[in-house]
Amino acid sequence: MYRIALKMLMGDTGKYVGIIMGLTFASLIMTQQPAIFIGLMARTYSFISDVGQPDIWVMDDKVQFIDDIKPLQDTELYSVRGIAGVDWAVPLYKGLLKARLADGTFQTCNLVGLDDTTLIGGPPYMLNGQLKDLRRSDSIIVDVDGATTKLAKPALHGGASTPLQLDDVLELNDHRAIVVGIARTTRTFQSQPVIYTTYSRAKSFAPRERKSLSFVLVKARPGQNLHELTQRIHAGTGLAAYTSEEFQTLTYQYFIKNTGIPINFGMSVLLGFIVGAAIAGQTFYNFTLENIRQFGVLKAMGTSNLTLLRMILLQALMVGTIGYGMGVGLTALFGYSMRNSVLAFKFPWQLLVFSGAGVSLICMFAALISIIKVLRLEPAIVFKG
Amino acid sequence: MPEVAVSCQQLLKVFDAGDQQVIALDHVDLEILQGELLMLVGPSGCGKTTLISVIAGILDQDAGVCELFGQNLAAMRSKDKLRFRAQHIGFVFQAFNLLPALTLTENVSVPLIINGVKRSIAERKAQEILAAVGLGKRMGNLPAQLSGGQQQRVAIARALVHSPKLIVCDEPTSALDHETGQTVMHLLKDVAMQQDRALVIVTHDARIFGFADRIAEMDDGRVINVRAATPNV
Predict the structure, then answer these.
(1) How close A322 gets to chain B, by Cα (Å)?
(2) Is A7 within 8 Å of B56 when comparing Cβ atoms?
(3) Which end of chain A has fewer surrounding CB within 10 Å, N or C?
(4) Closest CA relative to residue A263, chosen from A46, A37, A44
(5) Which of B25, B55, B60, B99 to mutate to test binding with chain A, by most A CBs within 10 Å of its CB?
(6) Which residues constitute the domain of residue B82?
(7) Is B12 part of a structural domain of the chain?
(8) Rg of the Cα atoms in chain A
């Protein structure tokens, strides 16, 4: 009987494709829009996740997210180093700076100052040059996206601009800076170019301020409980201390609470779900209605309601699986084709589960209304001409 | 003396039609014998279709008794009734009601599959019966690729494939031209009729009355006359 159910489903190619397209659309919307949303949210804390070595980030206790810099005095570094359980602690500068391009225009950049000795907190992947080249005078490392787009050398007589290369010179706040490396970093939320240099040079590039230490990066001694260590650092210094994961959470929660991004994407996803459910549900129900006589024939010939119910569930499962697979596949294809663009896109397994549940819900709903119709069906319908 | 296949006693069926009630079967008494082809005739709305629906066990009467081969269907549990219908009743419909997505072989094998027969065996048996109704070369076709007469032959094959004791036909020739209708009736008479089997045919088509053993005339929900048919010339 299940084979008959599948043949009934696929017998009318137009309607079969229509149901699958509806579910594909719903599945696509339910995965593509959240994937962009998650990608966008991941960018808010991409700088934290890019800095892999430290276990704990220490900062002013009023800091709300990664770009909410409230500088500390340099002496705070030594206070942190004095806390029991701290293996090492290094300074990190993070701030905004304007770079002057060759054509006289300015570009705002993220300036990151790394500990002069260890260079901890550097870019995760070097494309050209080496991290240790930052020890050369006036040296900087630029992220590849910034080097090829916003910081690229403008063409003097029109045409395409030239990407920054090693040994090119930039002007940072009236200071000469030489590019000694090109790095790949995860795009940030603001998509501004990221410039790495040493902590002391960053202080000289940046406008003079009384305090300049943005964060203290801490590595815990082996076997330390990170949560207890953050509490000890807070108790001992009065500063906020978060594990990397906690700081990431703090950052994206700030964006979720204080921006309209989740609502906008939530609306898109909800709309997609409703439209997808309506299309797929309506088409599937129509399919059942148009086949009601066939179900009536089967019922008259002795097919039980339970078998008919299983047949409809199988049909729903079939179109649901194909529609879900196609929708997810299209989303993955979309993400793959956009991998080198500015578009934020992240597709975690949880999203597969979410969209799978959504499509299942649509199919169950469509199947349910069809099943009710078939269960109530009087087999005597078959004798009506 | 042939045994009784169907025995209807004082069958009553009333339908609600808005504020009014319509008496579709008004204390109907009827017997159909094994090996007999009985035609139910009468004007539209006289209760013919309601009567075969009750006889076939797909509609419950409000009162009275209908026994098929000694079994009272109304007294059966729905599961048993379903099984009885699947095993012992074959249907031929006015609109053929073949499943359009299935090939002829698959269509004809449906009653056997409902009865739990393995698909390969069911399809082999379906092919045998299709050959018997003259469609041996079209087994892989879809119903839409056949003429009306051919589709009705498939429907007859489907009604016979599981060797039911009772075959219920609803206007089997009304959608067909005269010649095709005659062919279909010959088929029903020659292939379907057996000593232990009964055929009930609801029809308006006076041209096929001659194929019947007896004709039961209905009007206003009652069987008003049962007579022997004049043999077809």
Answers:
(1) 20
(2) no
(3) C
(4) A37
(5) B99
(6) 4-228
(7) yes
(8) 29
Per-residue pLDDT band for A384 (boundaries 50, 70, 90) equals: low
Whether residue B233 lies inside any domain: the answer is no
> What is the rounded distance in angstroms from the CA atom of residue A227 to the CA atom of residue A14?
59
Q: What is the CATH number of the domain that holds B211?
A: 3.40.50.300
Residue of A nearest to B55 (CA): A380
> CA A321, A327, A332: angle at the middle one, nearest 5?
120
Q: Which chain A residue lies closest to B162 (C-alpha atoms)?
A: A301
Closest CB from A294, A302, A379 relative to B99: A294
Instruction: Residue B143: list chain A partners with CB under 8 A.
Output: none
Range with the lowest mean pLDDT among A101-115, A368-382, B102-116? A368-382
Question: How many Cβ contacts (< 8 angstroms) between chains A and B?
Answer: 79
Highest mean pLDDT among A88-97, A200-209, A275-284, B163-172: A88-97
Task: Provide the 3-class DSSP secondary structure of residue A48.
Answer: helix
Interface residue A11 vs chain B (CB under 8 A): yes
Query: Is B82–A304 a contact, with Cβ atoms under 8 angstroms apart?
Result: yes
Distance CA A175, CA B217 (A): 111
Residue B74 domain-assigned? Answer: yes
CA distances from B49 to A133, B46, B52, B68 (A): 95, 8, 5, 17
- Does any CB of chain A come closer than 8 Å to the CB of residue B232? no
Q: Comparing C-alpha atoms, which of A189, A145, A263 is closest to residue A40?
A: A189
Question: pLDDT for A340-362, tens place per residue?
Answer: 777 778 888 888 888 888 888 87
Amino acid sitting at position B17: A
Q: Which residues in chain A are contacts of B85 at CB distance < 8 A?
A: 300-302
Note which residues in 124-163 of chain A have CB less than 8 A from chain B: none
CB-based contact A302 B83, cutoff 8 Å: yes
Task: Using a pLDDT cut of 70, give the percent of chain A over it.
Answer: 98
Domain boundaries, chain A: 2-43+260-383, 73-238
Could you tell me if residue B41 is inside a domain?
yes
Residues of chain B with C-beta less than 8 angstroms from the C-beta of A294: 97, 99-100
Per-residue pLDDT reduced to its tens digit, B34-60: 888 899 998 888 888 889 888 888 888
Is residue A34 a contact partner of residue A16, using CB atoms and an 8 Å limit? Answer: no
Number of domains in chain B: 1
Complex prediction ipTM = 0.84
pLDDT digits (tens, 9 = 90+) for A5-34: 888 888 878 888 888 888 888 888 888 888
Q: What percent of chain B has pLDDT over 70?
A: 97
